[in-house]
Amino acid sequence: MYIAMVASECAPVAKVGGLGDVVFGLSRELEIRGNSVEIILPKYDCLRYDQIFDLRLTYKDLWVPWYDRAVHCSVYFGFVHGRKCFFIEPHSDHNFFHRRVFYGQRDDDQRFAFFSKAALEFMLKSGKNPDIIHCHDWQTGLVPVLLYEMYKHLGMTHPRVCYTLHNLQHQGLTGEHVLRATGLNRPSYFFHQDRLQDNFNPAAINLMKGGIVYSNFVTTVSPRYASEILHTSQNFGLGHTLHVYRGKLGGILNGVDYNTWNPEIDSHIPCRYGINSLADKYENKKALRQRFWLQDAYKPIVCYIGRLDHQKGVPLITRAIHYCLQNGTQFVLLGTSPDAGIGHHFWRLKQRYNDNPDCHLELGFNEELSHLIYAGAEMMIVPSLFEPCGLTQMIALKYGTVPVVRATGGLADTVFDANHSDRPCDERNGYVFNDFNDQGIDSALHRAIGMWYTYPNDFQELMANGMRCDYSWNHPGQHYLNIYEHIRDK
Fold first, then answer.
1. What is the pTM of this model?
2. Which CATH number covers residue 219?
3. 363 touches 343 (CB < 8 A)
4. How many CB atoms lie within 10 A of CB 199?
5. What gap in Å lies between CA 166 and CA 228, rounded to an integer?
6. In the chain, fewer beta carbons within 10 Å around the N or the C end?
7. Around Cβ 376, how many Cβ atoms within 10 Å?
């Protein structure tokens, strides 16, 4: 099967969050299974160009219709750790992708509407005729709209579209100007509840809604999240649309790339280890303590790795730091915040605990350093307010680092409580709490820390259970292929 991935991210060249990991990991798995996969990305000026091999101009004169004229683009091809990637570079006064950032610009709606249009124009003009176009999140929500309202009539009758929702908090609300820019026009047609009109703002069109309405199948990044967006406020206003199209909605748990995240082969950690050599994990604990000037004491290390934002549960991350330091553990945090207020909050915390020999807050992001923290810590907190999938808890499990999570989204699909799960004992792999409050996380940490001190052998068994879990791309890869086959036959 020939699959074109159209996305705003692909790890490691363009990565903001889990979306980039998914695009790379799923593409790799699909290729292993004998499919041809090409990834189409914007050519940002902030790409990790050191991760692209043999980058070269492959399509010199791509003219993309935009408003009443056309924007000249160049398309480059290169390999990203073996993946075949095309990078679209518009030559325009708008400098759509020369901003030194991936997102967060006032005209993000236009930037990614242009990219969606350019990706289809490139496929059309270069004669590409994929069986499946797989697009992701609001940034490419216009792809199926443009395909079925415009490019189908220009000859692209073959492709079917799979659309993956990674996070419904960001939906791409915009106005009539995007219809005019992309040539869709006809505002009276598209400003309709059955098409692109936002469910709550009649003056706005919703790009994510467009993707849901026009695609052939819609997936979320975990089964639990698929249920939550149908039945709770986590749909952020798209509940009615999702109910109308629930017959083409399914949840597939993301995978982890075990070529990158695997303590047995990890080149970023000082001592590799596996389920049969768990004692070697403690060499990494020593190295982590030395790196952050933590005291060498008989205490577990609890960690947090990830973005510091509202979704990730800032009040509970803060609570966990205080609780752990008051209850016989060390705490390490690695993360950065897109929100200035939250960033300032954690800078104050860092100053407060700067001289504490049991705490280190690293306010930035360093992927290589994250490997050492996964390997050196014994527990990881993921106290999210909501979590469509979450990769950190699945990576932690592979490293024998016991996750302490809130029961939401993909966290509930992957972590099974040591004390209260209905799973067999050898499948229990962490600690889970339900309520988003101090009592919830205190209770889970109390049980986890208590087991580490009081029943060390049982805690080691919990670590080993986590390491046995298979959250590779093997199973989700097959699920996606089943969906592709299903929609290709329609």
1. 0.94
2. 3.40.50.2000
3. yes
4. 17
5. 13
6. C
7. 28
